[in-house]
Amino acid sequence: MFSDIIGFETKQFKRIKKIINDIDISYNETDRLQIVKFLNFDVDIEKLALRSKELTDYFFGKTILLYTPLYISNYCINGCLYCGFSALNKIKRKKLSLNDVKKEIISIKEKGFDTILILTGEDRRNSSLEYILKVIEIAKKYFSEILIEIYPLEEYEYRKLVNNGITGVTLYQETYDKKFYDRIHKFGPKKNFNYRLDAVERAINAGVKEVNIGPLLGLNKNYDFDVYMTVIHGQYIQNNYPEVELAISYPRIQSSVSKIKTYPVKDIDFAKIIFITRLFLNRVGINISTREPQYMRDNLIGLGITKMSAEAKTTVGGHAKNFYDAKQFEINDNRNLVDIIKVLKLKNYRPEFTNWVKI
Ligand code: SF4
Description:
Strand order of the largest sheet: 1-2-3-4-5-6-7-8
Number of strands: 9
CATH superfamily: Aldolase class I
Helix content: 25-40%
Bound molecules: iron/sulfur cluster
Distance between the termini: 33 Å
Shape: globular
């Protein structure tokens, strides 16, 4: 499990930071030293972008997968200091009835999507596994690909979901800095760092086809550490579980919903992070969400990203009808699917709607 080696990898990072000034930049190297060097020094960003583009086109062709998230519940028992759904916040809590789930799903399907990401806040009592299984039961009648972003589960629980039709699991570690993680998660099961970290491997052992990992950029003052560890975590998954499709997301925190000081990552650094990830993880899917503004999303098409969310709502429901107001975060790209497809086609990229087709 990755939790067995994270201590060693953290020491490696600290050792590299001490000698960083003595390391030469080589665009051909693929070792740990280079990841840290690229993250910390001015590099030729155009050269990096070009290499990222070459690798992305080579491994993925000119395609971008489009999907949309559906929030089915905003109940959460965790005290995360940076999230709109935190139990620390007094917001209206709601979960969708199965009837409303069906309306949302039909509305999403009618827009043209074939991949859906089902999300909940983390609360086993209000969003029980049985409830989630019933939602999946409805979703699988309409979608080829069902991904979930819920609380971490035991392997046998993931197996139940796999047997019921999910293809993938998204689970963000937020930060790989264990001490900092403990400080920003005030209470709740999410405080258990290792249990969360190893959940993607439990999901893989249970048979999911794809996993999506990532840090929340801007939480940790030292984003270089979290990006480094994400890449190392990605390499670990690819080496140990070659049968699984791995994707990485780098959501950037929005200061407006955070109760703690944030450290915004600049656009140029965000782009550099995507290029570096491609350089060191050639085959990884890279996802960009609607947290990012239109100009970032459009400009990064073809330069490393392979998946984009579209028409996202971060309220519970919100596709068929705007049910409730509390949002997990703000959307910065409100274009509809048709407009996003137009941009992709203008750039000679083909929109894809699923990775997996049932046969
Ligand atoms: S980040 Fe997830 S676990 Fe934390 S408060 Fe938000 S929804 Fe709950």
